[in-house]
Amino acid sequence: MSEKVKKFAAVIFLTLLIWAWAYLSLERQISLWGSIELSPAAGPEYLVTFEGGASFPVKLTFKGTPTKVSEIERRYRSALMDPLHEKLVYYYMPQDYGHITTGSYTLDLLDFIRQSPTYREMALTLEACEPPRIEVDVEVLVAKQLAVQCIDETGAPLAAADIQPGQVEMYVRPDYTGPAYIRLSAQQIAAARQSPIRQRPYVDLGTTSPRRIADQEVRIALPATEQLNEYPFQPQSIGFIFSRNSTIPSRFRVQIENESDLRTIHFRATEDAYEAYRRMRHHLLIEIREEDAALEEIPPREVIFNFPQEFVRNGQIEATSSKTAMIQLVPLSPSGG
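-> structure tokens emitted (337 positions)
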């Protein structure tokens, strides 16, 4: 009887081994979305767009053992859930392809991805890529000394700002003659009137290109103004700022969870500035972003004091402390109620 048990156990063991070997020898396919982006190591002199965008989505079909496919599938899902998790990104380095002069180039994506370190680490076979190739536009920028200009939230210049140093080196297009900007909020303007603050200037090189920020910080000081009186104030109206093409107002009602915290605010102002603020349609504004609709919980959002901008620029009104709003987007019923 013992001999029969041993033989039976051996048969089961061999069968399991055969099943395991057969499972591992099978190959599965999986299609995932990745993106092509400019390598951070490319250098600040390169401005690159992929079919007009800063990154380009590609659909990739891989083949491999079930174990490897399951592993990459698990990593891919983790990246979708966690913004800090490594995503399926393939970095383009213009120098590696000889794309070192301004112009348009065709990039064979199958070859490009197969040569990337990210692909080699996956231990999978790339079967297909959609699209198979893309056009890459490369612009070689030049280093220039740019004058630094301070502006407020509306884009109006703060001519009285004392900026040290008054110039910074940045990479821009050869024909760019504008300044490097520093945009200050009302709170930052108020702080700069009390003591100098430090910021890094920026330039925008187009709507599809990421904002370029200088490596160097500059020191900004604004002149003190006439004596301001401190006022407690009860806002009568809170407004919301939506992007131009936002669909949120037609789908959601904005609910402020801590409205009681916003019933009284404090600020300093001249009498004229106080009266102008009192007459504003909305005393407080809250920005509602399109991505808020996808969030389970919206982080606290800083409230904007809707001060009259001409008085902000002249230093005649300023907040003494900030406020934050806790907001929720409540779906509207199908009837819109």
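The helical segments are 2-25, 66-81, 109-114, 117-122, 186-194, 248-251, 271-278, 309-313.
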